[in-house]
Amino acid sequence: MSTTVANKIIQGVKAVNLFRDTLNPLRYLPMPRAIVMMEQAQRGMMPDLQWTYGAEVGIESTDADLMVIIERSIAAVVDAEWKVKRIEQKTRGFDAALANEQEAFLREHYEGCRNLREAWAHLALARFRGYAHVNPQYSAAGTLERLEPLDQWNFCRDGSHGDWYWNEKALQCDVRSLGEKNRLAPQDYVALTWRRSVNRIALIKYVRQTTAEKDWDFYVECYGLPGVFIIMPDHIPSGQEEEYRKSAEDAATAGSGALPHGADVKTPADGARATQPFHARLEWLQKQLVLAGTGGLLTVLSESGSGTLAGSVHEQAFRQIGRALGNRISEAFQEQFDVPNLREAFPGKPVLAYFELQMRQQKITAEIVKDLTALALWFELDPEEVSRETGYTIKAMKQIAAPSDSKASGGYGSFLARARCRSQVAPLTDEALRASSEELLAKAQASDFQPLASALQEALQAPDFAALQKNLTALRARLPAIAAALLTKPEAAAVMDQIMTAGLFNGLAEGKAGQIAMRRGSKSARSGARKRNT
Question: DSSP letters along 81-135, please?
């Protein structure tokens, strides 16, 4: 669909679709009507049901529980980042030059699109409405300019799984009434469909909820402010009945007052049920929707807020939902936009690049830097990716080399450097790792306890027992200060940290060597099999 045709259709929809704005889909909405709309949608007649879902006064804007689930789910998707990636080089038919060209081609399209996040948010509604469409619109240069969200009540379908048809007037009709001229071609849209839509549960919940709330309101009207009936006393003097009645009515209306001796007061609430079922019923309906809307990850939304355990659980749940939505949206773009455009631009060539949505990692910069520092001991890092993850400007990555001075050659820094250099050829053996560790730890402990050893040696130089006792008493008084100095920055602790780090990366090196050996063995096996077949 060209941009001109798309704009014409959109303008036409705005002109002829105004009648829908005059209809309140929730007015006089009983359960039989809701079931009829869902049955018609199953046959491809979508407008009435989708208008009930998504109108300004539809259930998505009226039901508070559904509104929260939708907004939180969309927020998780919109917060994502997008990338254009290449398939792995080990894939058969991989061509690095072609992959680079296709990657640049797709990136130019997506970078030129002005409303990517709006399109993601609209497609995420498919989980609730059952489907969602965006229309790709291109610039004069042929690059993607916009992904126009299309109103879902302007669609009909040929059954549950057939082709999509454009229903310009949003009439409640089937595809036979629309004709072949309204059949949409695959290049006209990027669509995401969802077989088990949340709004089907939400619609049933809404109808039953409004019924329960109506009955609850009637209950409150009857028993919230109960009527008062006064039983007059016996033996009222003749001719004073009207005076007694007026006095009783005044007292009942004012809520207080004096009554004649022997009068009694009764209210209808005394005979009403002690408990009312409406709150439990509404809570049960809410749980059904939340279970469907969060995939069973949550049961209620009214727990205490952020900073609490419940708030953390909610955040994690919606991030998981966002990841699932992001994966489905990525697949929709890959199948319906990336592949067709790449095959048109690179005819006869394999598709080697694709679009992908990625959820942001909620990690603070200090944690990211710590992880990158550990990885830099063994792996070469991409400066661009490091800059993107940390937010810092990275111009070049420095290589970590073994210390050259004699003082550092015996320290734990050289131990790590030697371990890293040796692991590039083969991992350190357990015996070598243990021997180096014991030697470094012994030296560090000796250095840490040197002040105590010197003080004790000085105290033992006493000429007699009385002097020795005096020196030891003085040393005992100095022990807290010596211990504090020792615990401030013990070399043994730093050495232990470095030894454990070296052990960790030694394990990583072993894993890497094992993978290389497995690949070599697999390659040798395939080569032998080919020779035998020959």
Answer: EEEEEE--TTSTT--HHHHHHHHHHHHHHHHH-S-HHHHHHHHHTHHHHSEEEEE
What's the pTM?
0.59
pLDDT in tens, 38-78: 999 999 999 999 999 988 889 998 888 899 889 988 988 98
40 plus 73 within the same structural domain: yes
Radius of gyration over every alpha carbon of the chain, rounded to an integer in angstroms: 38
Q: Do 96 and 8 have their domain in common?
A: yes
332, 356 Cβ separation under 8 angstroms: no
Query: What CA dihedral angle connects 250, 254, 257 and 259, to 10 degrees?
Result: 40
437 and 325 fall within a common domain: no
Angle of CA points 314, 316, 317, to nearest 5°? 65
Alpha helices, DSSP H only, in 229-335? Answer: 241-254, 278-293, 309-333
In a domain, 256, yes or no: no
Does residue 123 form part of some domain? yes
Positive or negative: CA dihedral 225, 227, 231, 237: positive
Q: Do 32 and 71 share a domain, yes or no?
A: yes
Listed range (109-113, 165-169, 187-191, 222-226) with the worst mean pLDDT: 222-226
